[in-house]
Amino acid sequence: MNRDPSVFETIQSFHVYRNGLPRELKVGFVPTMGALHPGHASLLKRSVLENDVTVLSIFINPTQFNDKSDFANYPKTWKKDFALAKECGVDIIITPTFAQLYPDNYRYQICESDFSKILCGKTRVGHFDGVLTVVMKLLNIVVPSKAYFGEKDFQQLQLIKEMVTSFFMPVQIISCPTLREHSGLAMSSRNSRLSAEGLVKAALIYDYSNKFKTVEEVEKNLVEVGFTIDYVEDYFGRRFVAAFLEGVRLIDNVANS
Ligand code: AMP
Fold first, then answer.
1. pTM value > 0.85
2. Using CB atoms within 10 A as the burial measure, which of 82, 136, 155, 194 is most buried?
3. Catalytic site positions
4. Distance CA 155, CA 153 (A)
5. Ligand 1 closest atom vs CA 42
6. How many angstroms is it from 181 CA to the middle of ligand 1?
7. What's the pLDDT tens digit per position in 105-141?
8. What is the pLDDT of residues 206-257, one digit of tens each?
9. DSSP secondary structure string, 165-218?
């Protein structure tokens, strides 16, 4: 039975704890927005295996939401999250507030000017600026040896890797494979907003991405069963899809065979 993770609600109290850790201890870090599922658990378990201390952050970052209702409706499942974190062997959970993380009220931002403007960045204007800014802040607070991110958010993972290189940040970014339901649907906190029928249909994103040769065929077939397409595009030997179903925005990417 794992011990209860310690919860730090303020950055100041976490700093006191972090400064007291022996320098040689390896700290692993998994940033999330909560509503944890087995996909998050796979990152947490890997961190627990590879480090002495694992820190999980739960913060629904408003600066990365271009859609206010998406932010407002983002699922919050604190009790379940705590239980899953404990089950995975997480040592520390930090739950900072907006005021703590953004003392500048977002006057200072990390902006990438190229890769962040395509795929998800095209319609979600400012999304990756919000992501990169909060990840930079969290990495500077936690000071981990390794930080774990999922390939499900492939564009985000790539941008974070490049940010860390560009700013000479002393952290290793570890990419973790996408965990899927038996149906092939990529696990996501947003899936909980789908109906039972929607959950079955949502698996077609993965199915069609693999099955059809061209992006046009994927798009046409998804539209036929009721999806609204944001994009279907092939880049760097991968196929990327973003589509709405029942008002929920779903993303996925697969290696292009
Ligand atoms: P989120 O809470 O959605 O911001 O995700 C936190 C981290 O978990 C990100 O690095 C995601 O890429 C990762 N993640 C989310 N879903 C999955 C999944 N199905 N498989 C693997 N990693 C995931």
1. yes
2. 155
3. 40
4. 6
5. 21
6. 14
7. 999 999 999 999 999 999 999 999 999 999 999 999 9
8. 999 999 999 999 999 999 999 999 999 999 899 999 999 999 999 999 998 6
9. HHTT-S-EEEEEPPPB-TTSPBP-GGGGGS-HHHHHHHTHHHHHHHH-SSHHHH
